[in-house]
Amino acid sequence: MRRSFFHSTGMSGSGRVFCFVALFLFALFAVQARAQDAGDTAAAPASEKTAMTVGIHSVPPFVMKDRDGSWYGLGVDMMTMLGRALHRDYRFVETAPGDMISQVADGTLDIAIGAVPVNAADEAVIDFSQPYYSSSVGVALRIVDRLGPRFMLELLTSRAFLYMLGLLTGPVFVIGALIWLLERRANPEQFEPRPARGVFSGFWWATVTMTTVGYGDKAPMTFLGRLLAMFWMFAALILTAITTAQLAAGLTSSISTSAIEGVGDLAGLKVGTVGNSAAAYELDVLQVTASDYTDIAAGLDALERGEIDAFVYDRAALQWGLRNYSGLYLTALSFSQQNYGLIMPENDPEREALNIAILSTLSSEQWHLLVERYLPSDGR
């Protein structure tokens, strides 16, 4: 007759229960230990992914370094918004511009933000993300070169100037004629009764009063004449202020209109650009000889000193850099679109998720406010 293990060892009922409980607890602890080990193994790669190494280099207005060593700019803000969207941590590593592509390609950097527009040569060894900003090549000139005799002639014969001139002289003729009608009998010494001389005296008085010159050679004496003079004094102040503002706006607009109408006009100028940049490549394609400068500040300084006639570089960077140069301006001419994206390793599995996050960020109101902050009135 077969007996169980517990019967063969002579265990009592309470002993058998104790053994069952002990075996159950042992099995439970073993399962939990395996689950913990599996969880630690799965968590290790995830924790490694959370901190990305981001190569970065100062390229205003995309990347700039503050006095306290922190980074800011359009590209930095994009990376911040992407980190939040993807729930990823990252750290910035300052990297030389020429090393960004190679260090991303060999895995030293997980990603990079730099002044490298999307191009076919680099795309062969790395991948660019969806562009987060679209710019173009722009041209900076000196204002003093624009304010020549030709410019002044164009300004004085422009429709806007002639309109403002008519807005000023029209009321002068009306007020001058009215003051003569009111003063010609009571004040014939200053406002002659003869229409030709009298009306001209009225024009003279209205012009002197409007410009606040106040020669005092002519003044109304009648009650209605003085009442008209009071009205004209206040009205002339308002009219002069409006006209001055309109002329200033028209002058600014005329200055902003480039004396260079096309890229072909660059051939006859002394042109400067940043060496080994996308702008330098475009000028080389156009067969425009250009002097190379180390950075945008050096080029704009040379332009201000008159060493070159025009400085050609990325339009967004020029717009930011020209804030510190009152004698220079950005022309309306732009050519060769430049798209800026993040530099990523080739065939990165996270590229699709990153591109989706970039597109989502570009459609947000917050991103448009950030662009307006760094590049006011920029529509791209």
TrEMBL record:
<dbReference type="Pfam" id="PF00497">
    <property type="entry name" value="SBP_bac_3"/>
</dbReference>
<feature type="transmembrane region" description="Helical">
    <location>
        <begin position="194"/>
        <end position="215"/>
    </location>
</feature>
<feature type="transmembrane region" description="Helical">
    <location>
        <begin position="160"/>
        <end position="182"/>
    </location>
</feature>
<keyword id="KW-0812">Transmembrane</keyword>
<feature type="signal peptide">
    <location>
        <begin position="1"/>
        <end position="35"/>
    </location>
</feature>
<keyword id="KW-0472">Membrane</keyword>
<keyword id="KW-0675">Receptor</keyword>
<dbReference type="InterPro" id="IPR001638">
    <property type="entry name" value="Solute-binding_3/MltF_N"/>
</dbReference>
<feature type="transmembrane region" description="Helical">
    <location>
        <begin position="227"/>
        <end position="249"/>
    </location>
</feature>
<keyword id="KW-1133">Transmembrane helix</keyword>
<dbReference type="Pfam" id="PF00060">
    <property type="entry name" value="Lig_chan"/>
</dbReference>
<keyword id="KW-0407">Ion channel</keyword>
<keyword id="KW-0732">Signal</keyword>
<keyword id="KW-0406">Ion transport</keyword>
<feature type="domain" description="Ionotropic glutamate receptor C-terminal">
    <location>
        <begin position="51"/>
        <end position="377"/>
    </location>
</feature>
<keyword id="KW-0325">Glycoprotein</keyword>
<keyword id="KW-0813">Transport</keyword>
<dbReference type="InterPro" id="IPR015683">
    <property type="entry name" value="Ionotropic_Glu_rcpt"/>
</dbReference>
<protein>
    <submittedName>
        <fullName>ABC-type amino acid transport substrate-binding protein</fullName>
    </submittedName>
</protein>
<feature type="domain" description="Solute-binding protein family 3/N-terminal">
    <location>
        <begin position="51"/>
        <end position="378"/>
    </location>
</feature>
<dbReference type="InterPro" id="IPR001320">
    <property type="entry name" value="Iontro_rcpt_C"/>
</dbReference>
